[in-house]
Amino acid sequence: MVEQLAKFTPSAEEAALLEEHQDELDSMARADRFLYEISKIPHYSQRVRTLLFKKKFTGAVAEASSRASVVLRAARDMTRSRRLRALLEIVLALGNYMNRGARGNASGFRLTSLNKLADTKSSVTRNTTLLHYLVELLETQFKDVLLLEEDLPHVRAAAKVCVDQLEKDVGALRNGLREVSRELDYHATLQVPAQPNDAFVPVMREFHAHAVCSFTQLEDLFQDMKSRLEACAHAFGEEPSASPEQLFGALDSFLAQLTEARAECDAARRRRDEEERRTRHEQELKKR
């Protein structure tokens, strides 16, 4: 309903034209009569905008809070995960072993490098990659590291969050609250008392008081999220300005590759076991 009212706000020219025909109210079409009546409401368009803002505010705050929270949690999960640190140490050791004598010992690598493991092919077995070797190594010596995804339940959702857009959405809420405040100030300065059935000011005053508290909590959450995100990027040697897509997206892609590689290793292991059983069976038949 509020959205429809916003669409039919009369322009200044339309209001002036309707004013010229105020003596013809009884003969006006219903639509024109409606436009005339709302044109007489002080600050009608501002009222409608603030009412529309009020209608959307709770959902917008909840949605923005959800995005900020998932990024904050993902950053916290990454920095706290001992399995992730163990994995990175293993990958670094593998890389230094493979590059020994060529580039010296590296002290670290970018998270995006994890996704290159699947591109490093074996010179012996065509379909085997460095990622497959890593999976086999983890399966035999570091099995707990394979539970890494349990440490990072929020990474996938966080990778989809655009911080720039989130900041714009928070800014839009801030501007909306300022407009509500200005509208309340305007009505406070009116010399003419409000109509007895006009509940706009008390309703919006109560809304504004609660909305400011909710928005303050959102702002605190957003600032905390940015600090956690920057600290997480620093902890893993990434640029402080790294976005969630850059920071969490690379890790999410690697986790998907790791899951796929594990499935491929399991399938290869089953094929080898089946071939060994078949070979033993054939040998037993020959002995008979």
Short description, anyone?
It contains eleven helices and no strands. The chain is 72% helix and 0% strand. It comes from Pararge aegeria.
Task: Describe this protein's structure.
The protein is mostly helical. It folds into 3 domains: 1-40, no CATH class; 41-75 and 156-242, Methane Monooxygenase Hydroxylase, Chain G, domain 1, CATH 1.20.58.2220; 82-151 and 246-287, Methane Monooxygenase Hydroxylase, Chain G, domain 1 (Up-down Bundle), CATH 1.20.58. The chain is 72% helix and 0% strand. The protein has helices at residues 2-7, 12-20, 30-39, 44-80, 82-98, 130-141, 148-151, 155-158, 163-189, 200-235, 244-287. The radius of gyration is 32 Å and the shape is elongated. The chain starts with a helix and ends with a helix. The mean pLDDT is 83.
Q: Quick one: CATH superfamily of the largest domain? A: Formin, FH2 domain
Task: Give the termini distance in whole angstroms.
Answer: 88 Å
Low-confidence stretches: none
Radius of gyration, in angstroms, nearest whole number: 32 Å
